[in-house]
Every structure is written in C-alpha cells, then in structure tokens.
Write a structure and sequence with these properties.
Blueprint (H helix, E strand, L loop, with lengths): L3 H6 L8 H8 L3 H10 L6 E2 L5 E2 L2 H15 L4 H9 L7 H12 L6 E5 H8 L5 H9 L3 E5 L2 E8 H10 L6 H30 L4 H40 L1
Antiparallel strand pairs: 1-2, 3-5, 4-5
C-alpha cells in the first residue's frame, strides 16, 4: 500500500528537491515548508542522505493552491477545500480541479515585465520559449517602446509553460489548439441554446443566477468527459499498435 506522499511522486515521475519544486511552482522554499506544516502539501518521500523528494502531485497541488488564492480564498478556506478532496487524486485529477476553479474567474490579461513573467512561469524563458508561448496565444508584446513588457493571459500561462516540455512540434500543438477551440465553441453554442430554452420564460436575475451556478459545473463535466474520452482513444490506439 502506498502512502499519500508516494502517490504524489508517482512512479517514473520527476523526483524534485525542495529547491527544484519551488522553482517549478514559482514559490519560495519557505512557502512550501509553510504549506507542509499546515497540511496543505503531503510530506516528501525521504530518499538517500535524508533528502526529501517531491513529484508531480506536489506541483499540481501547489498550482491548485495558487489558483484558490487568486480567487480570494483564505488559507483556512483552502485548507478546508483540500481536506474535502479524495486522498487518492492523481496529478491529472488535481489539474481538473484547478481548471474548474479557474473557470470561476473572469479573463485576466495583464502586462508584466520579463522578470515577472518568468517568476509566474516558475522558470527562465529562452527567446524560443517566448516565441512558442506567443504562437499559442499565451503572451504577446506589451508595449512597442518596451521590449521587456509582455501581455500575458494568466489563465493560459501555466498550461503554455507545461506545453514547452511536451515532445510535440509547434505545428502539432497549434493544430491541437485549433481543434480544441473549434469543438469547445460548438459545444458551448449547443449548451447555450439548450439552457436558453429552459430559462426563456424566467426573470433576467434567474438567468444570471443559473449561469453562475452552471458555469463551473459545465466546465467540470466537459473536462471529465474529455479526459475519459481521450483515455479511451489512447487505450484503443495502444492496443492497435501492439496487434499491428
């Protein structure tokens, strides 16, 4: 039986020191230790020479905590939120929770310096990285007079940074982005038409209330359905590959 900490490191996942985890998540070592003392983060797996190792689960949980903080939740509220989550959640499950939380927030595009962009990304960004993020629509030049300023879509930044390490060509990533945008817009349109039929005779305030309640639920449903569909597609693809 594995411990919570072992689940957070995942077999085959990157084993990070506390300094590497801090750099990856864009927080300080002191913050990680504080979260650990509060029970917001599982303890690391202790390896040789008594060095603690952290994994993808810790990175995903830190991202979720950051998102909850951006929504204005206090540490006490975040602690209650995390305590209610099932202990067996994988990093992918935590990412889904973060995406649902992020769906509560309005679009946030800010102009930041190169230094602040790298701080939020949790890593240094080479010129090629900036170009890829720009191609994905995550960042854009912020000011023609200031080459060090960038307009950044905060909701897409973490995803864009993660895609920098994915072994896919830029063309493949952009094609995937186009597919996702087209199909998500089609789903959003059909769901909107469905809900309009339900609230056509209601007061405008009822419509706004329904929208506020349905938004995170629809996002979670779409994410969960897509995750399961993608898992099934990949499983079928791997099965065919073994038999060919």
């Amino acid at each position: 039986m594995t411990t919570d900490a072992e689940d957070q490191t995942e077999p085959g996942g990157p084993a990070l020191t506390i300094d590497e985890l801090a750099a990856r998540a864009g927080v300080t070592v002191r913050t990680i230790r504080f979260y650990g003392s509060k029970g917001l983060l599982p303890p690391p797996v202790i390896g040789p020479r008594r060095v603690g190792h952290y994994g993808p689960g810790h990175v995903a949980r830190l991202a979720l905590i950051e998102e909850l903080q951006q929504q204005g939740m206090t540490l006490a509220a975040i602690e209650r939120y995390l305590r209610q989550l099932p202990p067996e959640l994988t990093p992918h499950d935590l990412a889904i929770h973060r995406a649902v939380v992020a769906s509560w927030a309005p679009d946030a595009v800010e102009t930041v310096s190169r230094r602040e962009l790298e701080r939020r990304a949790g890593r240094s960004l080479a010129p090629g990285d900036i170009e890829r993020l720009a191609a994905m629509g995550v960042v854009a030049p912020g000011d023609e007079a200031d080459a060090d300023a960038f307009r950044v879509d905060s909701g897409l930044l973490r995803l864009g940074v993660q895609l920098l390490d994915v072994p896919l060509s830029q063309d493949a990533i952009l094609a995937a982005r186009k597919v996702l945008i087209e199909h998500s817009r089609a789903a959003a349109h059909e769901l909107s038409q469905l809900f309009r039929g339900e609230v056509a005779e209601r007061d405008t305030r009822d419509v706004k209330s329904l929208s506020a309640h349905m938004h995170p639920l629809v996002v979670q449903a779409l994410l969960t359905t897509f995750q399961r569909s993608l898992r099934e597609e990949l499983s079928e693809w791997l099965t065919r590959s073994r038999t060919d």
